[in-house]
Amino acid sequence: MALDTQGGGDARSGGLTVQVNKVHHVQTITRVAQLLGEDEDWLWDVASEMDQEDGLIWVYGPGEETIMAFTDFGIKTLTDLVQIHKDNPGLLKRWIAPE
After folding, report:
1. Distance between CA 88 and CA 35 in Å, rounded?
2. HSE on the CB side for 88, CA within 13 Å?
3. Using CA atoms in the order 82, 89, 94, 61, what is the torsion angle rounded to 10 degrees?
4. Averaged confidence pLDDT in the chain
5. What is the pLDDT of residues 40-49, one digit of tens each?
6. pLDDT tens digits along 4-25
7. Exposed, middle or buried by CB within 10 Å (0-12, 13-18, 19+), for 74?
């Protein structure tokens, strides 16, 4: 069966559609923090509001290692969130355990 990977379905019968992931690179939060000139820990807190649909990707390494990374769309989304948080710093408050 011939598949149309451009989203048009089966080339012969029009019945089967295969979605192809078009993301060919991501950038780690460390790199994005450097590019944006932001503190990585603060950026991590801001990015925690994002989902996969927003361009956030988790990269799994050996053992329990995970790295937050972003597609180009994710970097744009994160940049918008950064501006929102800079305009209203009270939106992001760290939880502090009571003494």
Report:
1. 22
2. 5
3. 10
4. 82
5. 999 999 999 8
6. 444 454 445 566 676 666 878 9
7. buried
Q: What is the CA radius of gyration of the chain?
A: 19
Q: What are phi and psi of 93, to 5 degrees?
A: -120, 130
d(CA 11, CA 41): 48
Q: Which of 30, 45, 34 is nearest to 85 (CA)?
A: 45
Q: Identify the residue whose tokens are 């995970």.
A: 66
Instruction: Please give the Cα distance from 34 to 24 (Å, whole number).
Output: 21
Q: What is the pTM of this model?
A: 0.69
Tokens of 49: 């509001």
Structure tokens at 28: 């780690």
Ordered alpha helix ranges (H), 21-95: 29-36, 40-47, 72-87
